[in-house]
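Job type: complex structure
Entries:
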Amino acid sequence: MSQFFEYLKMAVSNIKANKVRSFLTMLGIIIGIGSVILIMSLGNGIQGVISGELEGIASGQIVLYTYDSTGTYYITNDDIDAIVEEVDGIMAVNVYQGFEGSTVTRKGEFSVNGSGQMASYQYFSNTGLLKGRYFNEKEYLAGTPVCLIGEADAIRLFGSTDVIGMTIDMTPNWGNSVSFTIVGVEKEPENSMFGGGYDNTPVSLYFPMTVLTQIYGWEMDDYYQIYLMAEKDADTASITTQVVSLLERRHQCFGENIYQYESFNDIMSNINTVLNAVTMVISLVAAISLIVGGIGVMNIMLVSVTERTREIGIRKALGAKTGSIMMQFLSESAIITMIGGLIGILFGIGGASLAAKIISMVSPEMAFTPSVDIITVLATTMFSSAIGLFFGIYPAKKAAKLSPIEALRRN
Amino acid sequence: METLIEVKNLMKIYNPGENEVRALNDVSLTIMRGEFVAIIGQSGSGKSTFMNMLGCLDIPTSGSYFLNGKDVAGLSDDELSDIRNKEIGFIFQGFNLIPNLTALENVELPLIYRNVPAAKRHELSVASLTRVGLEHRMDHKPSEMSGGQQQRVAIARALAAAPPVILADEPTGNLDSASSKEIMQILRELYEEGRTVILITHDNKIAASAKRVIRVIDGKIVSDTNYGDGKSIEEIAKQIEEEGDKQAYV
């Protein structure tokens, strides 16, 4: 063991004696490890941004739809009641039914996308209210014509967001006109990545779906798709299977794949899988640069062995065994690659946080936090040392095999 | 006196076959503990091959070699490393110090390979450097020292582990006459302290410091003269000259 420290000391003193060369040798490893770490942490950062984005919108949300070419299967109000009653872990169920129309204010004529929702709409709305309130169960059951409007649309229609209590006279493209009273103004989404509000897009209104009975003259009772919101930490996969089998039982269509679903948690995990794959591929490319760096280490160690043939001869004459010489040269290449690896890790982390700074300067609303887990750091450090050992073996063997007289004879 | 080195029928043949070279041809020799022996010969005489054999740097083609009671003729590389480390202190013509190590670190090397703990190693090396008068040069690198000083570091390195045999191969070959005198003085002192010194040289005057002179020609020992302690260096030098002239006519 004490011998081992001697070899480390020898290796360190030799690395110090050839500073420039040692640094150049390290450079390949620094770049390789640095880029692996950089890419990994940027990848984690992007993943964080995307999941943050989607989580705000739809974490726990499940879309259930009928996939039926004959058009005979719907989801009915009774189905919805049954789902709420029989399946645990569901916070809210919603359906929506849209219709198109127009309205005239003193700002001009606007086309309108009306969206009839259930009273559970508030659980599915992800932006929150700027003013007022959501419509309630009572208004839903009674079919009271109240509505919510977006911040930007309020300004387009009335030039202000102080619109609570104002009315919008809505003329649908088909059916009876309705006069909606505004009860709430919704905030715009935080970033406009999915946002709208352009001048020629229709104004969106959200109101109790039961109002559609007045417009169309009949009650809505058949939907192609419904939205489920799982309770926090509920198992969305199990909820979905339960709901699907409940619907199949009620409609007598077991195993026909008529009721299908999309869970946003599934979508999230799909996106993560894709991102991970991309990160892996880029990391693989970076790892190739690591191997190139390793070959650089081997190259320099070979030069070093040739240069120090006489030193090896002297050491052997003084009693160094094959193993001692081997250890000395192996420690040298391992230390070079390990130091290179550590510098690379620092560069990678530094580069990632620099990228984060630039991104936060360019678009401050994006929550981009690059991160790298300790396992990646440890694994890369081990990997770089392993590269040093692997690529150091051949030169070290070459050094250790030299015969002392041969080595002493050379200058 | 106790036998330290016993060589019997030692052969070293290079390129066995048609163009073989018998660098050592059936050499037998016994050296006692505490002797000061010079092995002399012209270049190509086989004395360097002999020195490599005695120093366990090379393996003989045939014959036996007992060093300090151990048969070393058939040992493996690593076993020979061990023998060199424990039994032999080398002094080379070209000093053979490691350039990026200090004098002290160079002297410590054989002790490192002998697993001597750091504190003890330091103590032995300092004592050894002090013995050759370099206690004020311990932290200097070889490039910062004169040839004579470098050779004294090499002697200190050979002494540090107190091996039974000091093997000096043309120790003054790269030195001016003042430094040569200094080095030979140290070797004579080592002999007087009771160490066994084997000196390999082509220079009769240098060989005259020894008490026993063995002449090698064409891989064979042609003369082996013990001059004893009575004679002065000059007298021995003269006799070596005469002996050499005689051999030249044979």
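Summary: Chain A touches chain B at residues 2-3, 6, 13-14, 17, 310-311, 313-324, 403-405, 408 (CB under 8 Å). Residues 60-263 of chain A form one domain.
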